[in-house]
From TrEMBL:
InterPro entries (UniProt xref): DedA, DedA-like, VTT_dom
Keyword flag Repressor: no
Protein known as: Membrane-associated protein
Subcellular location: Cell membrane
UniProt keyword Transferase present: no
Any one GO cellular component localisation term in the record: plasma membrane
Principal subcellular localization: membrane
Membrane topology (UniProt): Multi-pass membrane protein
Classification via Pfam families: VTT_dom
Length: 233
């Protein structure tokens, strides 16, 4: 509960937090931003760290020349790429070991059929999943981990990992650079950040619920068919 409250407070006051840090510690702000983005994308246990809002506010401060735009973009892209790579390597290393365990009692909680389905999904849609997940909080933390577990090839993963990082960082930092200091946006930044997070998460939730309902409906239709597979008269 305390962690959640701290996260909400950090998101709601991200502009004040970053501004105060710049004034107090100067160039060390680049290291802090690098570390936050790296940890959010690289450590599956830290999905609650601010990502989108931090990039946007960083761009806004670059527009006032308190930060260097080129350096900011370069460091954030490197942090995003290396963070995802670490997450992928962790999943690739521990995934098969966990699912091949012979520890009694643990096996019953592991669904190897689900792992195979995940592998098949990433074979078909893994590239666009890695790219689109960049823009969805929490999901972007787990996507590279799952890609590693599903044994997605390193070469293919890195292709979409780098593309997604460039798109994510450039879009949000430049949006902050050009629009972050408009008085209206500055005044209602907290609301805009929360609406943005909701806009990213809600469609994913709705899509998941819709797929679940459709699977249940298909299962019910299959249950009323006779053994020969032909529909009832």
């Amino acid at each position: 509960m305390d962690t959640l409250l701290h996260f909400v407070n950090l998101v709601l006051h991200i502009d004040k937090f970053l501004g105060d840090f710049i004034h107090l510690y100067g160039a060390w702000v680049y290291a802090v931003l690098f570390l936050i983005v790296f940890c959010e994308t690289g450590l599956v246990v830290l999905p609650f760290l601010p990502g989108d809002s931090l990039l946007f506010i960083g761009g806004a401060f670059a527009a006032t020349h308190e930060m260097d735009l080129g350096l900011l973009i370069a460091l954030l892209v490197i942090a995003a790429v290396t963070g995802n790579t670490l997450n992928y390597l962790i999943g690739r290393a521990i995934g098969p070991a966990v699912f091949n365990t012979r520890i009694r009692g643990l096996e019953r909680f592991l669904d190897r059929a689900a792992l195979q389905k995940t592998h098949d999904f990433y074979t078909r849609h893994g590239g666009k999943t890695i790219v689109l997940a960049r823009f969805i909080p929490v999901v972007r933390t787990f996507a590279p981990f799952v890609a590693g577990i599903s044994q997605m090839s390193m070469r293919r993963f890195q292709l979409f990992n780098i593309a997604g990082a460039l798109l994510w960082v450039l879009l949000l930092v430049l949006l902050g650079y050009f629009f972050g200091n408009i008085p209206f946006i500055r005044q209602y930044l907290n609301v805009i950040v929360l609406v943005g997070i909701g806009a990213a998460v809600v469609p994913v939730v709705i899509g998941g619920v819709w797929k679940m309902l459709r699977r249940n409906r298909d299962a019910q239709r299959g249950a009323v068919r006779p053994p020969n597979g032909s529909p009832r008269p």
